[in-house]
Each structure stands twice: as C-alpha cells, then as structure tokens.
C-alpha cells in the first residue's frame, strides 16, 4: 500500500469517527435552533385585556383595555396608543429561543432574580381568566 493510499485511509477514518461522534452526542449538547416560546395561538393577541410589567425596586406598570382603547392604570392613569400596546403582545408572541443551554447557577449568570416580569391577561372562550408571565432578562 502506498503512502498516499495510507493517508487517504486515515483521513477517511477520521471523517467517519468525527461523523459518528457528531451523531451520538447527547440531546442537551445539540442546539435545535430558534424555537417559538409559545405554540401557535397560545397567546391570543387580540383578546389580551391587560399587560403588567413589574421590575424590582420600581413601581409596576399596568395597562388595561377598556373597549377599544388602552389605558395605563398604574402608577398613574393615562391613555395609551392601541397600536403600540398591540405591538407589545405581538412581540411577546413572536419570541424565539436562540438556543437551549443547561444552567446550573442562574444567579451567577445574572438571571435570578429576573430583571422584570411581563404578564399578559385575557379571558378564554369560556370566559375564564387566563394569563402568562414572561421573565425578562
């Protein structure tokens, strides 16, 4: 066997070994790519009645829909632009995770406690109150 053939065989073996390692990695090492945080329709943008944003050491911001208009009700009452308020909900609905990682110490990464929480409230088809809260940060 020539030197050239030997080198090609070793190269092919290395490629196969690398491919086998890649395919046998454990699932937590594999990043599946961007994934939606909400299933389709899980956050009904047009039915949201209230949005509350809480941040440590600050007064919470609460917005409520009254008919077709939106109002900031905390920390003071003020009319809000309905299109801007809808953008908050559509932005939350469109959130995607860029990758999955296992975190052993969220506090060491500055993720615990979160920088804030955004809560979206609505009523379902049976008129039961529903809400979802997102940690920010």
Report what the structure shows.
With 137 residues, the protein is an alpha+beta fold. Helix content is 24%, strand content 31%. It has helices at residues 3-23, 82-93; strands at 35-36, 48-54, 61-66, 69-74, 78-80, 96-97, 116-123, 129-136. The chain has a six-stranded antiparallel beta sheet with strand order 5-4-3-2-7-8, covered by helices on one side. A two-stranded antiparallel sheet has the order 1-6. The model has no long low-confidence stretch (mean pLDDT 77).
Q: Give the H and E element order.
A: HEEEEEHEEE
Q: Give the distance, in angstroms, between the N- and C-terminal Cα atoms.
A: 61 Å
Helix content: 10-25%
Please state the structural category. alpha+beta
The 3D shape can be described as: elongated
Largest sheet: 6 strands, antiparallel
Evaluate the radius of gyration. Answer: 24 Å
Uncertain runs are: none
Strand percentage, roughly? Answer: 25-35%
Average pLDDT number: 77
Tell me the number of helical segments per DSSP (H or I, 4 or more residues long). Answer: 2
Count all strands and give the number. 8
Quick summary:
By secondary structure, the chain is α+β, with helices and mostly antiparallel strands. It is 24% helix and 31% strand.
Which properties best describe this structure?
137 residues, 24% helix, alpha+beta, two-stranded antiparallel sheet
Please render the helix and strand layout as text:
Blueprint: H1 3-23, E1 35-36, E2 48-54, E3 61-66, E4 69-74, E5 78-80, H2 82-93, E6 96-97, E7 116-123, E8 129-136
